[in-house]
Design brief:
Layout lengths: L2 E4 L4 H10 L5 E3 L16 H16 L3 E10 L5 E2 L3 H8 L2 H11 L7 E11 L5 E12 L15 E3 L11 H5 L3 H37 L3 H26 L1
Parallel strand pairs: 1-2, 1-3
Antiparallel strand pairs: 3-4, 3-5, 5-6, 6-7
Helix pairs in contact: 3-4, 6-7
Length: 243
């Protein structure tokens, strides 16, 4: 069975990504491999998603999928944003962080907010794909619901009347920012599949041209062989994570 490392120590994220990924793949946690979390030093979701996927790839030599996500609240200048998890740590828990946010929002008329997820995938060959998913909504007046994780109990998605924290697990997983990002990454992987086949076709045409003309055969063959091995490895794994 093929394996993939889900680059997070967050149990909620691990469960959501495990559900979205193919059942044909064994999901590995960094905890199983005694890999610590990297320091998130970038200033954007995309930067931190790439930082995480590179870090976990380096320490595992496995295909890795990782995200950086957070809650951006308009009235708080899009905070906590990339510091969403760090706010929870600073205040002792997500529940305390939510209470802090609700206190800040007490006299705010604009309660709009966006959940953002940047999802990054890296194959051991070095190829990285990164996408962004967003879902808009508003901040509730109080903590409502015990389902989900993180800031789910204070986020009401647009067109809904309940928080993520009140929704059945599968309903929430199939509509949130992580799901939106995953749909985008599936689309990109399918495009990669088409690209890989066209790339291999072009390489074979060049290969036969070299044989026919007897120009730098050995030099070309070495380069050609490396490229084919790279793309075949890339191609074999990618379709499996989206089946």
């Amino acid at each position: 069975m093929k394996k993939i490392l889900i680059g997070t120590h967050n149990k909620g994220k691990f469960k959501e990504l495990s559900y979205l990924l193919s059942k044909k793949i064994k999901k590995i946690s960094p905890i199983e491999l005694n890999i610590n979390s990297p320091k998130e030093t970038k200033k954007t979701f995309i930067g931190n998603a790439k930082l995480k996927v590179n870090y976990f790839s380096k320490h595992s030599n496995l295909p890795v999928i990782a995200d950086d996500s957070g809650l951006c609240i308009s009235a708080l200048k899009r905070k906590p944003g990339i510091y969403s998890a760090r706010w929870a740590k600073k205040h002792g828990s997500f529940k305390n962080a939510m209470k802090f946010i609700l206190g800040k929002m007490r006299n705010k008329s604009n309660r709009s907010a966006t959940f953002v997820c940047c999802l990054s995938f890296k194959h051991p060959t070095g190829k990285i794909i990164t996408v962004e998913g967003k879902i808009k909504g508003s901040i509730s007046n109080k903590i409502i619901g015990t389902k989900g994780f993180g800031y789910d109990p204070i986020f009401i998605p647009f067109s809904k009347s309940i928080t993520f924290g009140q929704m059945p697990k599968l309903k929430k997983i199939k509509m949130d920012h992580r799901f939106i990002a995953f749909k985008k990454i599936k689309k990109k992987l399918k495009l990669c599949k088409l690209f890989i086949w066209s790339f291999i076709d072009i390489e074979f045409l060049d290969y036969f041209f070299v044989i026919k003309t007897k120009i730098s055969y050995f030099t070309f063959y070495s380069t050609f062989k490396r490229k084919i091995i790279y793309w075949i490895n890339f191609f074999i794994f990618f379709p499996n994570i989206i089946d």
